[in-house]
Each structure stands twice: as structure tokens, then as C-alpha cells.
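task queued by scheduler; priority normal; single chain, no ligands, no partner chains; default sampling; output format set to C-alpha cells
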Amino acid sequence: MKSTPRTLALIFFAATTVFAGTASITLAADKDIVAIVNGSNITEWTLKRYAGQRGLPPEMPKGQQRAALIEELINRELIYQDAVSIGIDQTPAIINEVAHQRVNLIASRMLNRSSDRFAVSDEELKKEYENRKGELGGKELKARHILLENEDDAKAVITELDKGADFTTLASKKSTGPSAGDGGDLGWFSTEQMVKPFSDAANKLEKGSYSKTPVKTQFGWHVILLEDTRLVNPPSFDEVKEQIRVGLQNKLIETYISSLRETAKIEQKK
């Protein structure tokens, strides 16, 4: 099979994601070798790794697709060998990039979530679920708001509302927030989704009422209309099990990194 320019281009771009040191693997059993290029072995492992980086399904390609991938790897190996022969691998840019990728690869493997180091048992997952069940369900609010740049403008809007002005119309005309086009509609949200001053103020309102004093947040001054509230049942354990696992693993990773930093000598240069 001859390689076309398009194939070579694909090889080049795919090769940029591969650690250069793995281009040739010489220690392999005969049954694991798929090609030999000038004495350097291309192994089944390399073929599978390359297929994965090309975005192919986990199952190993067969037939013409497999043959095409092997041809691409042969071409890649030839390019690699030629580059090494003229010293490209010894240029500062390549040396630095290889060192950078090596650190990335080894550090990433150390943080592998599937390793025993960051394993989380089903008992721990269920305990965390029970502890957080209230957060996962609970009360949700449906509200609109009018965001103003200063307190005086917010007070003026409240005065207009007190005189019977329509909240949605005022929001469309005067709000500086992104929801102005929807009449200030924020939809349904939990209190944890909003900044605390906003959530606290909205939580104190009765359905159908608006805030009588402006509410200040880092975004500006708000006038809030609470349209409705509802209680939401928490999702089942199976629905959030993997999300909880990731959260607990993140905590383990943070603890691991913190322990490394505590015993390390770190000097940051300006």
C-alpha cells in the first residue's frame, strides 16, 4: 500500500500527540510485533495506542483499517528515524517538549482515578449521599430580577413598582443584566446556585412579592420578584453515584497534593 500526501499529513498531526520516546519499542515478543522498520519494532501495543489517539473505538480495528493504521505507523517510524538521523531530537525545542510531555504523562498516571490510591468504596459513596441528600433535593425558587448599576436607580424602580408598574416590562426596559430580554426571568434555581446576598433576599420573599429594598451583590443592585417555590425530591443514589465518586476522589487528590506541598521546599521566582 502506497502512502498518499493526505496520509502523511494525518500521520504528522497524529504523531504530535505521541511521546517521541515511544516511537520505537525494541523489546517485544514476536507475536506482539506488527512491523519492523530498519530493525525497530512496531508493536501491537503501539498500534492499539495509535488507534485510540485517532479516536477509533476501543475494539481493535481489523482488515483494511488495521492495515492502513500499520502503514501509517511505518511511515511515522520512517519520519522519526530520519529526524533522529539529522539530530532534530537533540534540538533544545524538542528536548524541552519531550521533558514537558514526560512530566505530564507521569504526573497524570499518578492521578489516575481508577488506581487504588484514589479508590472510593460503595459504603463511602452511600454515606456521602445520605449526608448530602438535603442539598441534592430541597427547595427551588422561580424568580425575576432587575439589575441596576447603582442603589438610587434600584430605589427608583421599586417606587415605580409600588405605583403599579409591571415588573416584566420594567426588567425589559431597565435591567442591565443578560436576562433583560426575557423580562428578568431567571427560571428555577436552588439557593446554592446564586450568590448569597441574592439567595438570602429571594428566600425571604413571599410568592408574588418583590424586594422593597435594593439587594447589593458584586454584580450590582437587584430588585427581585419571587414568582414561585417548589420542593424537589433528591435524585436516586444510582443517578448521582458517579458524580459523588468524582467529588470524593477530588478531595483525596487535593489531600494528596496538600501533603506533598507540606513536605516540599518550594521557591517561586518573580
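post-processing summary
- Strands lie at 33-37, 40-43, 138-148, 185-190, 215-217, 220-232.
- The chain is about 50% helix and 15% strand.
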